[in-house]
Amino acid sequence: MISRKPFYTVVALLFLAGLALSLYRHFVFEVPWLPGEQRQVWSIEAKVEFEATGKPVKASLAIPGTQPGFTLLNEAAASPGYGLSFLERNGGTRAEWTIRQASGPQELYYRVNMMADPHAESPTPVAVPEIAPHTDQEPYATAIHQVLSRALERSSDGFSLTRELIRELGSQQQNAALLAQYRPKPRLLVEMLNRAGIAARVVKGLTLEDGRRRQPLVDLLQVFDDGRVEVVDPATGEPGQIENMLLWERHSSPVLDLVGGVNSRVTFSMIRQQQPVAVALEQKFEDSNLLNFSIHSLPLEEQALFKGILLIPIGVLVVVLMRVLVGLKTSGTFMPVLIAMAFIQTSLVTGLIGFLLIVSMGLVIRSWLSHLNLLLVARISAVIIMVIGIISLFSVLAFKLGLTEGLKITFFPMIILSWTIERMSLLWEEEGAKEVLSQGGGSLLVAVLAYLAMNNDLIRHLTFNFLGLQLTVMAAVLLLGNYTGYRLLELRRFQPLARED
Amino acid sequence: MALWSLPKFTRPRVLSSKGIMGMNRRNIDYISRYNPRRLYPLVDDKLQTKRIALASGVTVPDLIGTIRQQHQVRHLAEMVSEWPGFCIKPAQGSGGKGITVIVRHDREYYTKPSGVQETIDDLERHVSNILAGLYSLGGKQDVALIEALINFDDSFEGYSFEGVPDTRVIVFKGFPVMAMMRLSTDASDGKANLHQGAVGVGIDIGTGRAIRAVQFDQPVEHHPDTGRRLSELQVPDWETLLRLSASCYEMSGLGYLGTDMVMDKLRGPMLLELNARPGLAIQTANGTGLLPRLRQIEALNSSRMSVEQRVAYAREHFSIPVTAATPTAASAG
Q1: What is the pLDDT, as a whole number, of residue B240?
Q2: How far is it, in rounded angstroms, from Cα A300 to Cα A320?
Q3: Which candidate, B124, B127, B83, B89, places its Cα nearest to that of B106?
Q4: The whole model's pTM is what?
Q5: Is the CB of A497 less than 8 angstroms away from the CB of B287?
Q6: Closest residue of B to A377, CA-based?
Q7: Greater confidence, A309 or B175?
Q8: A357 falls in which pLDDT band (50, 70, 90)?
Q9: Which residues from chain B sit within 8 angstroms of residue A498, using beta carbons?
Q10: Domain A38-124+271-281 has CATH 3.90.1720
């Protein structure tokens, strides 16, 4: 006997490879196991308003990018008559509107979709700002020194220093009041940190709340120490980068830089949307690398085609299960899969009715054809033409009666139907109607089961998103091909043998 | 609730303890292991079977002629005119499909065993269908065989309705391991297919006597149409029949083989056809599983045994004691 070891090795390898590919897709590309998982997508709109003075206008707005917690999906700007460009400056991106001449009130819009995404990271590492030397006048220098030295004593690194500085400013009331006149608090903190040799800067954050309009930007402190970055709320000393805080401007640049206008202001409004994760991920990985081997990298039309093709192995698996484990008879091995694919197009009830109508009518006409003494190929060709005739007839009838569902009958594979009719008709002549019902019923049952499997949302989601599963299905089919146990229906067939003793 | 607690199902364990072979095991452990693919054409094509049978001295029914091309179809009437009865078969048909038997004819009307009369046109259409591949696997082009009828042996009188009873012997590595007789009935339309309603009679390998009989997998005592008591059935010339079956192993090279034999009044046992994928109903007809016998032979070093030795071995080891076979028959009344 040939050793089965290589066989089981191959099966195990296929199974593991399939599993590994799927896990890779899940963990690296965040494709969820279940369909219908939603991701939060924030649509944020920045509205720039100003009075133009009749001169050339240049408005430059800081805009956010992908950052920890958020992935930028897409962005757009609207501003009739303005030229628009997105520029990189100081490591940050800015939207710049320009126009030769404008006067009166102006409104410019910038809209961005950000997906809440725990795996997101900045595309480029955040540049550490330089530590600028500061010289302060008295009495501020003394106050600063007092606060700083107390905080330095009680801290170990840049981040704890920041917290202690904020706490000291809260407890040393006098110094705090004095320094408040000297610098705004965030900038003061940056300067004090710089004195202690810690790089820091002020950034602008936006608190995301569903349905908010005119939400202001808040000042946040970004502290760099030992290769790490932390965002701190300068008012409380708490970590500033909480779940719903989007860093709008991260490079200490002005949010709006306007030339040729006055009375400018920027307001933010936002809404939260739930998007299916597939759509969101598609946008996220739009220009990903080769390793992201998925159908999503194909053009949309081919994707739709593949959605269908990738389901065929599932249908085939159902047929194998039904034949090997259950022992159902089908007319034509894989005919049920093709019928099931037609059912997917037509919906189940319409499909079943259509199938039964065509086949039964075909059988009636075919019984007449059998009297004509035709050669086989000619007769099958005649059956094909007949099936087309029946389908056309039903389509027209359904349309005239206003049953648009009936038009879907055209999705049936006509050649397959013709062969089915031919086989059934022969079976009828040779083995009687009972065998036709048993085989036809078996085929339909398997087709319906295959349809239910192939039309299942979870299975569709898995086959389409996890190509590795195809290998797993392959392993399962190979294993089934090795099954020597009894079939379910044999337990009934041989039951008379078990009874007597 | 487990499935086998339903009235019509049984447990897999019960079947396996009785050595019943399932379809999957037959396919994997016996057919694909002992029957090399390249030898299939020898048994799937009845013309080739006939050729190798004649070459190794196995008796087969006379061949009246073959029809290979569509234009030869109109010679059919002329071909059979001198023969009282004949039988048309597709060379590559399976499961008895496409076999038409004509018991007598007056050159105008051709009478089937059921009494239905056909015209030569009907028969010609049938031959055309055969040529076009209607009955062959995969619908490939086929050849029609016209064979002489078998002279029904009188010892089977009343055991069969409208058809020739044939004996199926499973031959494993040259050993006849199990046998059954298939008797056509009204329900089976004169055909010897068990799933169509023919009666299957398990035949004791040792003696050639009936063990028990089933129709539609349920035990029966009498032939449903003729009323003859099936337990009295005894195949004549049993030793010759077994030797003929066993010699089909050398002839075909197939390790797991179903041989279909018929008894001719004048010429004795004849080989009708070989089957490389014999069915499992023989187990129901015998009330016994195949596996213990197959395993016994697998464990045996049989490569040097002659046909006679193998038949003797099988008759000794696979015979069912008479006492076990009779109670049901005795109580039948």
Answers
A1: 92
A2: 32
A3: B83
A4: 0.69
A5: yes
A6: B132
A7: B175
A8: confident
A9: 10-11, 14-15, 18, 20
A10: no
